[in-house]
Automatic annotation (TrEMBL):
<feature type="signal peptide">
    <location>
        <begin position="1"/>
        <end position="18"/>
    </location>
</feature>
<dbReference type="GO" id="GO:0004867">
    <property type="term" value="F:serine-type endopeptidase inhibitor activity"/>
</dbReference>
<dbReference type="InterPro" id="IPR002223">
    <property type="entry name" value="Kunitz_BPTI"/>
</dbReference>
<dbReference type="InterPro" id="IPR036880">
    <property type="entry name" value="Kunitz_BPTI_sf"/>
</dbReference>
<protein>
    <recommendedName>
        <fullName>BPTI/Kunitz inhibitor domain-containing protein</fullName>
    </recommendedName>
</protein>
<dbReference type="InterPro" id="IPR042943">
    <property type="entry name" value="SPINT4"/>
</dbReference>
<feature type="domain" description="BPTI/Kunitz inhibitor">
    <location>
        <begin position="44"/>
        <end position="94"/>
    </location>
</feature>
<dbReference type="InterPro" id="IPR020901">
    <property type="entry name" value="Prtase_inh_Kunz-CS"/>
</dbReference>
<dbReference type="Pfam" id="PF00014">
    <property type="entry name" value="Kunitz_BPTI"/>
</dbReference>
<keyword id="KW-0732">Signal</keyword>
Amino acid sequence: MKPLSLLIPVILFVFCVCDFEVKLNCTEQHDDKFPAELYREKICQMPRIIGSCKLKQKRYFYNRTANECLVFYYQGCGGNRNNFKTKLYCDCACVQHAIESNRSDF
């Protein structure tokens, strides 16, 4: 494998993360786990559900009132899709959409 081919994913990751932090510029191209309408209209409106087992996994959920992704500890078993492994995924799926929706209201 060529060294350059190993470097390209790293460069793309750094570029995407830096761009996100500066402008919160997320698109479905960042991750195909973001089917736009599904997340925006359904998942981001779901309540936080911690689950009913004894795991303790750090996750993020979108809080509509605060318009931000907050940390919670998922216990496994049950829950819903408003349960993101990273803050970046949560922000891209829900916070960015809320910002875009507010802009289109004007």
